[in-house]
Amino acid sequence: MRIYDLSKTNSIIGNFITELRDINIQQDPMRFRKNLERLGYVFAYELSKKLNYEIITVETPLGEKEMPLLSDKLVLATILRAGLPFHQGFLEIFDSAENAFVSAYRKYDEDGTFDIFSGYVTSPSLEGKVLIITDIMLATAASLIVVHRALKEYGTPDQIHITAVIASVEGIDALKTYFGNKSVTLWVAAIDEELSAKGYIVPGLGDAGDLAYGGKL
Fold first, then answer.
1. Strands 159-168 and 130-138
2. How many domains does the chain have?
3. pLDDT, greater one: 128 or 217
4. What is the CA radius of gyration of the chain?
5. Which residues, listed in sequence order, are joined to residue 186 by a DSSP beta bridge?
């Protein structure tokens, strides 16, 4: 699995991540969602450099010019609900992409352990396309693995890109084990070392879904 850690080079991404982590700025849900969306723009731009293009001839008012045009067929997949703002940022850039949505949630047992359950899934055919899975927090990677298994029912993509705002070392290792030698690319904006007893990234940023859309019962 190839990994692109966007934090290795100083960029405006650092500003967005800093604000997402800041407990005071987190009090503004609109700001939180907007920062996730803006990260989607940046991720999409960086990822676009690894896609395939064809040369077409464009007619301008003063002549013709050969120009590159994206030739890959993209499917943007996200995990409901926290992933929606990040997903929207990608969609603003890849505006002709098809979309897939998967609901996945943790169900905790009394001892603090949890299982991941997937409910609603909707997706176009993935056969021969580029699948881009957008997620906010790659903690244990259990949710993402459940989502990938659900999407496998819709065909085999030519490329798989996984994008996460913040990932844990444990989550990355779990993905490496799961995908093995498959051609999969992981894009991250920050990597944190620890997980809490309940499987949350430390220091991370908290519950992204609650911070974006409010608490839940």
1. parallel
2. 1
3. 128
4. 18
5. 3, 162
Q: Is the model's pLDDT at 106 over the cut of 90?
A: no
Domain span at residue 76 reads 2-213
Q: Output the domain CATH number for residue 177.
A: 3.40.50.2020
Q: Closest by alpha carbon to 167, among 123, 145, 136?
A: 136
| Contact assessment for residue 71 and residue 54, using Cβ atoms and an 8 Å cutoff | yes
**Burial level of 35, CB count in 10 A (0-12/13-18/19+)?**
buried
Helices (H) and strands (E) in the chain, counts: 6, 11
Please report, for residues 21, 41, 68, 80, 116, the alpha-carbon distance to residue 109 in angstroms, rounded to integers and kept in the order given.
28, 37, 52, 22, 11
Phi/psi for 22 (5° steps) reads -70, 120
Match 């990355």 to its residue by tokens. Answer: 172
Angle at 91 between CA 87 and CA 93, to 5 degrees: 125
Number of neighbours of residue 98 by Cβ within 10 angstroms: 15
**How many residues in total does the chain contain?**
217
Query: Which pLDDT score is estimated for 100?
Result: 97
- pTM for this one? 0.92
